[in-house]
C-alpha cells in the first residue's frame, strides 16, 4: 500500500474528480498488470498524486478507454513540499551558544555601565604623585651625574676648572641617558603586563 511518505519524488499533483474517476476505473481494468491495478487502487485514497505513477497508469491503459491527458489533468494543481529543516551540528550549536553568552554579557555591561563603579586605570604616571616623584628622580640623577663627572675630571686634569665643568656636563648627560634607558624599560614592562592582563580577561570572557 502506498502512503504519503512512500510516494516517489518528483512532480506531485493535487487530486481531482477526473483523476479519481480514472484511477477507480484503472483499479479494476483487467488489461493492466496486478501491480498497476494495486497502485491505482492505493492512489484513489491519496490526497496528492505523483505524476510519474499517474502517467505510467495512463500509458498502460487502452487508448480507446482512457481520457485525454490534458482533460485528465485539468483543474489539478502542483503540490510543493517544504524542505526538511537543516540540522545544526553540535560544534555549531556550541559556537552559537558561546556567541550568545558573550553578547548577553556585553549587553549587561552596557546596561550597568552608569551604575557599576568604573575600574581604575593603571597607567604609568597617571597621578600627580608619580609625576612629581619621577621629576625629582630625574633631577637627582642629573645632579649626581654632574657631581661624579666634575669630581672625576677635576682629579684627572689637576683641578682645571674648564675640564672639571666639562666632566660635570658629561656626567649630567650620562645620567640623562641612564634615566631614559630606565624609563624605556619600565614602560616596556608595563606594556607587557597590560597585554597579558588583557589576554587573560579576554580568555575569561570567552
UniProtKB/TrEMBL annotation:
Primary location class: endoplasmic reticulum
Superkingdom field: Eukaryota
Entry annotated with the keyword Protein biosynthesis: no
Any Gene Ontology CC annotation: endoplasmic reticulum membrane
One BP term from GO: vacuolar proton-transporting V-type ATPase complex assembly
Subcellular location: Endoplasmic reticulum membrane
Record's signal peptide: none
Membrane topology term: Multi-pass membrane protein
Residue ranges crossing the lipid bilayer per the database entry: 134-153, 165-185
Record carries keyword Transmembrane: yes
PANTHER family, sorted: TRANSMEMBRANE PROTEIN 199 (PTHR31394:SF1)
Listed name of the protein: ATPase, vacuolar ER assembly factor, Vma12
Native organism: Cucumis sativus (Cucumber)
Amino acid at each position: 500500500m502506498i502512503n504519503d511518505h512512500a510516494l516517489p519524488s518528483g512532480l506531485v499533483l493535487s487530486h481531482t474528480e477526473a483523476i479519481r474517476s480514472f484511477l477507480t476505473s484503472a483499479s479494476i481494468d483487467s488489461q493492466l498488470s496486478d501491480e498497476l491495478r494495486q497502485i491505482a487502487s492505493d492512489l484513489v485514497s491519496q490526497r496528492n498524486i505523483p505524476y510519474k505513477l499517474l502517467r505510467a497508469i495512463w500509458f498502460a491503459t487502452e487508448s480507446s478507454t482512457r481520457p485525454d491527458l490534458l482533460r485528465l489533468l485539468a483543474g489539478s494543481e502542483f503540490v510543493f513540499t517544504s524542505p526538511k529543516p537543516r540540522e545544526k551540528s553540535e560544534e555549531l550549536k556550541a559556537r552559537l551558544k558561546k556567541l550568545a553568552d558573550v553578547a548577553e554579557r556585553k549587553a549587561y555591561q552596557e546596561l550597568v555601565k552608569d551604575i557599576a563603579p568604573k575600574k581604575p586605570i593603571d597607567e604609568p604616571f597617571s597621578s600627580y604623585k608619580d609625576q612629581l616623584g619621577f621629576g625629582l628622580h630625574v633631577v637627582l640623577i642629573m645632579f649626581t651625574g654632574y657631581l661624579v663627572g666634575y669630581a672625576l675630571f677635576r682629579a684627572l686634569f689637576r683641578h682645571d676648572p674648564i675640564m672639571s665643568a666639562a666632566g660635570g656636563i658629561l656626567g649630567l648627560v650620562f645620567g640623562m641617558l641612564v634615566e631614559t634607558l630606565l624609563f624605556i624599560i619600565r614602560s616596556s614592562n608595563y606594556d607587557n603586563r597590560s597585554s597579558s592582563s588583557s589576554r587573560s580577561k579576554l580568555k575569561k570572557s570567552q
